[in-house]
Design a protein that fits this description.
Shape: globular
Largest sheet: none
Order of helices and strands: HHHHH
Number of strands: 0
Distance between the termini: 40 Å
Oligomer: single chain
Strand content: under 5%
Number of helices: 5
């Protein structure tokens, strides 16, 4: 099971990355840089991040690396129990909704 639910976290990273890049394009009127570091993207946009959101962006960025590279993928999949994945996905959803609200303001 954990091998399959780990993909949810990888795709969660992609969703946050895409909404950040959309915000970048909306606010700065240019194409977002080809990076995957969510915290760096948020800083480039000028988002007001508290410690909790900063930590979430850093953790979610790790899902991209951990799910992508073979040398760490096995350990990542073992870590991705259903409970752990559900907890992390809840954080991803909260962050996604907050980022979407930033596009409106």
């Amino acid at each position: 099971m954990s091998g399959k639910v780990s993909f949810a976290l990888f795709f969660g990273h992609l969703a946050i990355e895409k909404v950040l890049k959309a915000l970048y394009a909306l606010r700065l009127k240019e194409r977002a840089p080809p990076i995957h570091n969510l915290h760096r993207l948020a800083q480039a946009i000028g988002l007001d991040l508290d410690d909790e959101r900063t930590e979430a962006l850093l953790r979610i960025t790790a899902f991209n690396i951990e799910a992508r590279y073979p040398d760490v993928k096995r350990d990542f999949r073992r870590m991705c129990t259903l409970e752990h994945t559900e907890r992390q996905m809840a954080r991803i959803r909260e962050l996604f909704e907050w980022l979407r609200s930033q596009a409106i303001s």
